[in-house]
Design goal:
Chain lengths: ~110, ~110
Amino acid sequence: NAGVTQTPKFQVLKTGQSMTLQCAQDMNHEYMSWYRQDPGMGLRLIHYSVGAGITDQGEVPNGYNVSRSTTEDFPLRLLSAAPSQTSVYFCASSYVGGDTEAFFGQGTRLTVV
Amino acid sequence: QQQVKQSPQSLIVQKGGISIINCAYENTAFDYFPWYQQFPGKGPALLIAIRPDVSEKKEGRFTISFNKSAKQFSLHIMDSQPGDSATYFCAASRTSTGGFKTIFGAGTRLFVKA
């Protein structure tokens, strides 16, 4: 059981470049989300999805796009990377409702130079 | 606007001591309060969680105390061990409306001295 798989683990981008962070889960979870983790800021919600075809913004959505074409996959797109997007990104998934545990991927460490 | 405030930012405890981490929330619509534990290089993992209809939940050495009227909750780690050294996040979410956004506190770095 792979759980939540994020790729890549590390990435260096130049300012203005675009890229997609991949996230896949094999637990048939309806809910998926993306967080960024910065020192002293905790985990801040970027975007989330409660099912295929449904996405919504979190606390810090600017500069990021998402889509959810399948239950399993929830990619995060940076259209024009900025140094302020240097962070560790985590994808999480869970069932919707009830006492439900969120399962996190191992994270992607992104540096924008 | 920080919806979940966590303190302290860092904590050093002697082995065998009690570690206490506090959180406060603002949105009374939150109805699920989990704590996550994160080791370096790993993603957070659920440690223990509580709903506001109970005032305390205990699992092994870990206890959540919940004060609904004060909108505060805390994590107590009894008999703290060096293996407990990690970053701890409190969180809050609203599960009743179909949307399920989990908002995290800023985190507490715990170091347990041997």
